[in-house]
Amino acid sequence: MGNRVSASIVIGGQAPAELVDALCQAIEDERLGPDWGDSFETRDELVAYLRAGIDGVDLYGTEVNAGEFETLQAFCVEHGLAYRLTYDGYGGEWGPATRLHHADGTEETCSLDRDGGDACVCRDDLARLGFASIRELRAYLERFDCFRPGPLVIAEAASASD
Q: Is 51 part of a structural domain of the chain?
C-alpha cells in the first residue's frame, strides 16, 4: 500500500488533441480533482477544466502513494509537458518537497520548510549546489517558490478535409 500523503501538480505545455483522452485517463487513474477533496463529475467537466488552464492546470490528490502521481508524471515526461509536483512529508521518512519537470526533460527538486511551505536548503544542499553568492541562492529558491509551467494548450484536432 505504501506511505500516503497529500500532493498537487500543475501541468503546462502543448498537448495535441489526440492525446486528450489519454491525459484524462491518467488524471482519472490518479483520482485527481480541481481542489483538495474534489473530483470531476464527468469527462466533459475534466476536459473543460484542462482547456481553461491558462496558467497551467492545477490538480490535487490526497492519500497519494509516496507523493508521486506515477501515471500522470510518466505521461507528462513521455509527451514533453512541464509540471510542478509538490508533496507533503511523511514522518521521518522524507520531508515535503517540490519537483520541477521542464519540457526539455530536466528535473530539479527542492525541499520545503514545512508541508506546502517555502523552498529551503540545508547545509548539505549548500555544499552540493555550490552557490557563489546569496543572489544565486535567492534565485534558486525563488525558482521553486514561483515556477508555473505556463498554459496547457490543447491543439485542435485536424479536420477530415486537411
A: yes
